[in-house]
Design brief:
Blueprint (H helix, E strand, L loop, with lengths): L10 H9 L7 H10 L1 H20 L10 H13 L1 H14 L12 H8 L6 H13 L9 E2 L3 H12 L14 E8 L6 E7 L5 E8 L12 E5 L2 E8 L2 E7 L3 H15 L3
Antiparallel strand pairs: 1-2, 2-3, 3-4, 4-7, 5-6, 6-7
């Protein structure tokens, strides 16, 4: 069986990736090619930046979500292939039409890896990527809406194998939009999304650790990547990360409110 990294990728295929037109079956080979050819990865990132600039000129225009098969393929690749590939997967999702509103530098994967400290727990890095992927979505920001919150919580609790709760943030001006199930390295993950009257969005990322694999450091901490700040902590087998592009003082208050609701003691 041939090594997918050695498979030649054409410029037309790179353009198709950026335009969201690449065949889903071809995606793993293209990802592998970009991983092995930084020059092409930089070109793709630059094309994506141009696409985002055009999109910013027409913020009201919904370019539509990427095909679900493509999105899932990229997320699966990011879960299997380590942090460098995970960062690249987030960048490539820009070109699939599921991330918007931010311009990346010439070497986006390196930039993202530098911004998130190596010492941060893996689930926090996953939370930042999931936030970047789904917050800009217009039509499909969540998989199950808040109108069906009871079902959403029960479904995520069953899939994660541990009690999951959607905090109430109405007093802070944020309403629940809904949530979704996400892939994880060993266990599934959950994401809840909130929005205020100004259109600002928050995401709460929830992971359940396998027995004996919870991080030793469970303290309430924060990390910033660009404009997005994430407050995270671990409670027993559950890890939480609240992310948003909101002023730090306000974000801190929101995070403490969520922490108090999810931490009984």
């Amino acid at each position: 069986m041939s090594d997918p990294v050695q498979t030649t990728v054409t410029e037309d295929e790179l353009h198709a990736l950026v335009d969201g037109q690449l065949e889903p079956a071809r995606l793993p080979q293209v990802l592998a090619w970009l991983h092995a050819h930084p020059e092409d990865a930089a070109r793709v990132a630059q094309w994506q930046a141009q696409r985002l600039q055009l999109r910013q000129l027409h913020r009201s225009l919904d370019v539509g979500a990427a095909p679900a098969s493509m999105t899932k393929a990229v997320l699966r690749a990011s879960s299997r292939s380590g942090w460098w590939r995970q960062a690249m997967a987030a960048v490539l999702l820009l070109g699939l039409g599921v991330v918007g509103g931010r311009l990346w530098p010439a070497h986006p994967a390196e930039h993202l890896a530098e911004q998130l400290a190596v010492g941060e727990p893996r689930f926090v890095r996953d939370a930042v990527i999931a936030h970047a992927v789904y917050v800009p979505e217009v039509r499909h920001p969540v998989e199950v809406t808040a109108a069906d919150e009871g079902h959403l919580v029960q479904w995520l609790t069953r899939r994660l194998g541990a009690p999951v709760k959607a905090p109430v943030l109405l007093s802070a001006g944020f309403r629940l939009l809904g949530g979704r199930l996400l892939p994880g390295v060993e266990t599934p993950r959950a994401q809840f999304m909130y929005e205020d009257a100004q259109g600002r969005r928050l995401t709460l990322y929830v992971t359940v650790f396998e027995p004996g694999k919870s991080p030793e450091d469970t303290a309430f901490r924060s990390v910033r990547e660009g404009r997005v700040e994430s407050f995270y902590w671990v409670e027993g087998r559950l890890g939480y990360a609240l992310s948003g592009a909101i002023p730090s003082s306000e974000m801190m208050a929101l995070a403490r409110g969520v922490y108090q609701q999810l931490t009984p003691h």
